[in-house]
Input
Amino acid sequence: MHDAELSVWRTLMENGTQYLGDEEYTKAEKYFSQGLLKAYQLEVPEIVAFTLRLLATVRVRLENLELAEEGFKEALRICQDIHNAKGMAEAWAGLASVSVKKGMFEEAGKKYERAIAVYPHSSPQLRLGMLYADLGQAYATLEDWTRANRAYSHAQRICRYNGFPKGEAESDVLLGELSFRQGKKTEASRYLKRACKIFAQIKDMVSLSNTLQYLALVYFEHNKMSLALECQQRAVALCMKYDSRAIFSESCYFLSKIEQILEYYEEAKYYLELSIQFYPEQDVELALRYQNLAGLIFLSMDLEKAELYYFKALSLFEMTDDVRMNEIHEALDAVKEVRERKEAPSNSADISEDGPQGQGKFALEALVHLAELYEKQRNFRNALECYWKALEMGRDAEMMTDWIETRVQRVSKRLRRKKITG
Output
């Protein structure tokens, strides 16, 4: 073998690998293609097969699946000829990744199993754990819970016994997700809490933040709002230091939703405003945030500001969502109606609309209007919260509340029915 030619090949592969890591796949393909030409000149089968696999991997990323499949098959043939078990395992894994891209998950599972079957005991066990995780994801996509759980559990044990805490924690997250998808929320929370503990121990703060948010979601769906709040507050604090603006925005948005359910409206408004401030796009997701913020401000009776945010949301939907636009038009009509009532002359000589009773009446009206809008949109959870708050406000003011109680019962029944059927 000529040392100079080998040096050129290594340089080409290093450059390609760097671009692959940076997700600049077109540039990586160029260097790996040149590397393959040099590999054929070197006439070393291991080097040819290795280069073919890397080139095929890039082509999977570029969605050039036919060429990628050809490359992995050729690499597999070479490795079988020279009895290179590790190379055979990697080629089977590459072929499995092509099947995943094609949506052929049963076929992908079989190829990952072939990769695992030939993987040599002397090779790095962390990579074997990754193969089991990939196998589990193929079966999870097929909703084959038993085989997915078995594969993830294998990955978890391999990482634990070989001292790979990050891999062990990532396996716990996958097992938690699998449990959550099956409706096993208690089991899901147990896996996710264990993953959080490991990520904290190894000081992987980005993974800790992501897992805390997942755990918050599990608690949220389990209606354990105090625990959801605690997890999401920690996640937001970590996001602020370690993550991107987009993820921080999303974290604040979810925290705001939890706080709204807990009726911490000022805190909810604060985090929703932060979410809007850090959201990087001008799209439908931003429109939804503005719509939510307008609803919160409506509750506080700042009608002018609520109207402003409803109009901002309306401008961002840009005729892309007729349902949402109709919702906002209805909300604007409700704002207008409450404003007109507030500005109309009082029929009572002894109650000033500027006094606490008058302001309370308008706040109650705003809550009822908002509840009616949520109910019309079949958003029964939010409707029920508004009706409950209006009921509490009416009782405090010693007003007649029978009509509100009737609505609470009606919406509660509809919400229960929705949970049973949905």
Remarks:
- Residues 17 and 174 are 28 Å apart (CA to CA).
- The chain has a mean pLDDT of 87.
